[in-house]
Write a structure and sequence with these properties.
- This protein has eleven helices and eight strands.
- The strands form two sheets. It has a five-stranded mixed beta sheet with strand order 3-2-1-4-7, with helices on both faces.
- With 293 residues, the chain is an alpha/beta fold.
- The chain is globular and about 60 Å long.
- Strand 1, helix 1 and strand 2 form a beta-alpha-beta unit.
- It has helices at 20-28, 48-52, 71-81, 100-110, 144-147, 162-168, 179-188, 214-232, 238-258, 262-275, 280-290; strands at residues 7-13, 35-42, 61-66, 86-89, 95-96, 116-125, 159-161, 193-205.
Length: 293
């Protein structure tokens, strides 16, 4: 890896005129000289184009517009246009914190064999006010087994060599959500991850974000899980696979219970029981469902 490799940062945006310039500016203000921002406007109908016009004279910002095709296609378009040796991502409603890029480049310079370097999030609301931090256990090294239980790799904080993204094939365009989860699983069977325990990105929690589409997200989880195990099931043990299936069914069951979809929740808990009858999360969830909580 070059001492100061060019970094391409993909910003895919759809009707995020309110926030997109904050995202782009946060990348341009990094204390690292070799970077470009690849903005893909996925058919926005708001004032996104007008707001992005301010970068017309900045050679570091390249803007591509296309008919609306969804975030997966937009992100792959960004990857295809990227010229850097390294690639990062910044969703249009988030922004990078100072020092993010320099910290990660330093990590790669010490460990050029790494597949992904990622970090922690700082949470903010729609107006940019700080929100309480959540506690999530994250891992370094070969993390496939841990990833089967949850996607703890924070997408907007990641930095990845472009050659690895090309090798893996980019984002799976058959998925509409959880596309980063699918990507990390595929990378994890070949490369190590490094977690940096410091906030690298401000992650915005607000009513307009895609992550609120929980049902659709779970549908995509199950599809990518099945595909991954069909292609890479030999990379994990049968016990790890059973634990992964049980965890995923319990997670959807808990969400269904929170939506008062009790029949669906019980169905998910039953499926989890078949995989791992002594799962602690399952037993606690069944108890709560029986008590009507």
């Amino acid at each position: 890896m070059n001492a100061t490799p060019l970094v391409s940062v993909v910003v895919a945006t759809y009707n995020m005129g309110r926030y997109v310039c904050t995202a782009v500016d946060s990348v341009l203000q990094q204390d690292y000289p070799e970077l470009e921002v690849v903005v893909v406007d996925d058919g926005s109908t708001d004032d996104t184009a007008e707001r992005l016009a301010r970068y017309g004279g900045d050679a570091r910002v390249r803007i591509f517009r296309q008919d609306n095709a969804g975030q997966t296609v937009a992100k792959n378009r960004g990857l295809s246009e990227a010229r850097g040796e390294m690639v990062g991502f910044c969703d249009a409603d988030n922004y990078w914190l100072q020092g993010k890029l320099r910290t990660q480049i330093n990590a790669f310079s010490q460990r050029p064999d790494l597949g992904v370097v990622y970090g922690e999030l700082k949470f903010i609301d729609g107006e940019g006010n700080n929100l309480p931090a959540s506690t999530v256990t994250r891992y370094s090294g070969r993390i496939t087994a841990q990833l089967l239980l949850d996607n703890f790799v924070t997408f907007n904080t990641t930095l990845v060599p472009r050659r690895i993204l090309e090798e893996i094939g980019g984002f799976d365009e058959s998925l509409s959500m959880a596309i980063d989860y699918d990507l990390w699983l595929r990378i994890s069977v070949r490369y190590e991850f490094l977690y940096l325990p410091r906030p690298l990105v401000a992650y915005r929690i607000w009513n307009g974000q895609m992550s609120h589409r929980t049902g659709e997200r779970f549908d995509n989880f199950f599809r990518l899980f099945e595909k991954f195990l069909a292609n890479h099931g030999d990379c994990v043990t049968s016990a790890e696979i059973r634990k992964g299936w049980a965890h995923t069914y319990v997670s959807r069951g808990r969400w269904r219970a929170s939506q008062k979809q009790y029949v669906g929740a019980l169905s998910d808990y039953t499926r989890a029981f078949r995989y791992r009858p002594h799962d602690i999360r399952l037993l606690k969830s069944l108890t709560k469902l029986a008590l009507g909580k």
